[in-house]
Write a structure and sequence with these properties.
With 307 residues, this protein is an alpha+beta fold. Helices cover 29% and strands 19% of the residues.
Length: 307
């Protein structure tokens, strides 16, 4: 990667956007990774010979993906408002979630995952419960299933007011003119620790690519913190890796090529594997940024009296 002048770094040489180069020095582009590997690790006098550029690009991208899953601390965040359908569409580069929060009154309230916040598709049926089809033979589906409608239209807990009923004074859900209760009389011995939370709950439907929320999340702002695979939407010119992991990516490419070849001695494969593992461990330690000052701040509260 060529070095940038101060004007190119801070002002992007007058181009838009001006912050395009901010923080870029800590990364190595995929193109440079591939060029360096082809120049320094392949050839007639090297351990790797007859290696195609396409092979190196493939393993380099795989190594960067593994780093994003396992080692990088580069968390992306997306803020969206949850509408009446109580769904948050996952971003296109989503791989796994770190934290999902409700943003309200200038504060973040982490939400709890709830396997009871279900969602499902549904098929239209006739009076004989036979599935209905359109003129092209495709199954006709309603916009929302009964399960989704119940979740979206779920009412808040309400007290049952009828002195002549055994349910008088109990909390339940009042839906469509009827009360529904989670438990029978005398059966409440404690909270359900899985869902005991004043905040809304959620469940991720990975196949549908959405987050389904409980009814209290309607018209609230949700902040999704997640990790990506680092492939930048398929644009190889934007793919890069932190310089602390550059040597690991070279070792990963070398190991994967050696491991996939026929006739390579086992000790050569094991040595390449050990090099890869050691470099990954060293890079993680470097990236952890364990400073004495941070440890000191965490230890300052050890003298507090616990009431």
């Amino acid at each position: 990667m060529p070095y940038l002048t101060g004007y190119q770094y801070y002002e992007n040489a007058g181009a838009v956007p001006e912050n395009a180069n901010w923080g870029s020095y800590q990364y190595v582009p995929l193109k440079d990774i591939v060029n360096n590997f082809m120049m320094m690790y392949t050839g007639n006098n090297e351990m790797l010979a007859n290696v195609s550029r396409a092979q190196v690009i493939f393993y380099a991208k795989r190594g960067i993906q593994e780093l994003n899953y396992d080692a990088f601390k580069e968390i992306k965040a997306l803020e969206l408002e949850v509408c009446d359908n109580l769904r948050f569409v996952l971003p296109p580069d989503f791989v796994n979630w770190i934290r999902i929060s409700l943003y309200k009154d200038g504060a973040l309230f982490p939400l709890t995952e709830n396997i009871q916040a279900n969602s499902a598709i549904s098929y239209l049926q006739d009076n004989d419960c036979r599935i209905l089809f359109d003129e092209t033979g495709e199954i006709i589906q309603p916009e929302q299933s009964e399960l989704d409608l119940d979740r979206i239209n779920g009412a808040a807990r309400t007290l049952y007011f009828n002195e002549g009923s055994r349910f008088h004074g109990r909390e339940g859900f009042f839906v469509d003119g009827k009360f529904y209760f989670d438990y029978d009389i005398g059966s409440r011995f404690g909270l359900n620790s899985e869902t005991a939370n004043a905040n809304p709950t959620f469940r991720i439907d990975r196949r549908a690519g959405v987050i389904n929320f409980s009814s209290h999340m309607a018209h609230e702002t949700c902040l999704l913190e997640y990790i990506s695979d680092g492939m930048e939407g398929g644009d190889d010119s934007l793919v890069s890796v932190n310089k602390l992991f550059e040597e690991y990516v070279y070792a990963y490419i070398k190991y994967m090529i050696v491991n996939s070849r026929v006739g390579v001695q086992e000790y050569v494969v094991r040595r390449s594997q050990k090099d890869k593992t050691a470099l990954l461990r060293n890079a993680k330690i470097r990236l952890s940024n364990i400073h004495p000052g941070r440890l000191l701040m965490n230890l300052r509260s050890q003298g507090n009296i616990i009431k």
